[in-house]
Amino acid sequence: MKVFEEVESEVRSYCRSWPTVFTKAQGSRVYDEAGREYLDFFAGAGTLNYGHNHPQLKLKLLGYLVNDEIVHALDAHTAAKRDFLEAFRRTVLAPRGLDYKIQFTGPTGTNAVEAALKLARKYTGRETVVSFTNAFHGMSLGSLSVTGNSMKRGGAGVPLNHVFTMPYDNYLDGCTPDFLLFERMLTDNGSGLDKPAAVIVETVQGEGGLNEAGIGWLRGLADLCKRHEMLLIVDDIQMGCGRTGPFFSFEEAGIVPDIVCLSKSLSGYGLPMAVTLLRPDLDVWEPGEHNGTFRGFNPAFVTATAALDFWRGEGLREQTLAKGERVAEALEELAGEHDKDIAGRRGRGLAQGLVFTDPPLAGRVCAEAFQRGLLMETSGPDGEVAKLLPPLTITDTELDEGLAIVRESVAAVLDA
């Protein structure tokens, strides 16, 4: 442990909550070098929707590497990229009637967001982007500008301009005015709001505290964007790839965003990969106008193609929704038993959490869970939410085991 303190930057964070050295992982289990086993209710912040080292994906990856097939290719044509593009169109886009071009950005979610913001401004010729309270979109400058967290924004060290922040659904003490105010500001020459290029939104704000936008609110936002010729960008980096049930988190609302950002579980194996999906008419890039060295990480294409097998049919979607209902029931029961300290449950699918009235309690619950062999973390502007993000492939037995540990951890903190 000493070398981490002596050599690694102070910016490290998750390791402070989990003071051990991990060595192996399989499915929903992680092991440290002492041989202790942990149940994973964090899943790489939503990067491991299909668990650790899934054998189906692992075999594809190992075969690719053993055969000396190409690993790095910038954006040159490769067989692995072709296979992914064909499989994504066949398995995800076509069944949903979606017509998107696929832009390979840099390897992380913030790269997908940066590309979306840049494209929206290029296409419309406008500068302003509307974002929402408690949003989180990444740590590079453009993504930070549309992020709400003051601590993360402060790390930029420069002004974060050309953004206008509006209240997210249920932001104002449990209610949010409809879009009359937003529309009035768009049409009033005295409002101070320049006509935006785009609006960027998460359907469930993962890092912002598992705040969930209602279906009606999302539909109203999509309609407003259409009427005022603003592009609608959905950041589906954490909530996409099945985290809330459907492959895309916006499917339930029946909306079709102009641009979609995907990353995290897209590769299926924890390998870095990100894409920006865009309407074909928005594809106004000049060749090389937006590029990056690691747009073509072919091992990620291989595992991403294999991961799409989970989406042939509706099996995983239904399983995730059923597991989500079990999680919701367990958390609602806990909240009811401790209503003085727990304000309630938030989230949907397998992205849910408990909201504590005193924010430090959430961190203490997560620390207790770690001591009992469960990995989970906090979210929200003050770290007030104890957040559950188990793999979608978790078994019912494992899910019950983890929920029991959550219950024990809550009791240890609140009944002490």
From TrEMBL:
PROSITE patterns: AA_TRANSFER_CLASS_3 (PS00600)
Keyword Protein biosynthesis recorded: no
Pathway: Amine and polyamine biosynthesis; ectoine biosynthesis; L-ectoine from L-aspartate 4-semialdehyde: step 1/3
Gene3D superfamilies reported in the protein's UniProt record: Aspartate Aminotransferase, domain 1 (3.90.1150.10), Type I PLP-dependent aspartate aminotransferase-like (Major domain) (3.40.640.10)
InterPro entries, sorted: Aminotrans_3 (IPR005814), Aminotrans_3_PPA_site (IPR049704), Dat (IPR004637), Ectoine_EctB (IPR012773), PyrdxlP-dep_Trfase (IPR015424), PyrdxlP-dep_Trfase_major (IPR015421), PyrdxlP-dep_Trfase_small (IPR015422)
E.C. designation(s): 2.6.1.76
Keyword Transferase: yes
Key words of the record: Aminotransferase, Pyridoxal phosphate, Transferase
Cofactors named for this entry: pyridoxal 5'-phosphate
PANTHER family from the UniProt entry: DIAMINOBUTYRATE--2-OXOGLUTARATE AMINOTRANSFERASE, DIAMINOBUTYRATE--2-OXOGLUTARATE TRANSAMINASE
Similarity remark: Belongs to the class-III pyridoxal-phosphate-dependent aminotransferase family.
The protein, known as: Diaminobutyrate--2-oxoglutarate transaminase
UniProt source species: Actinocorallia libanotica
Encoding gene per record: ectB
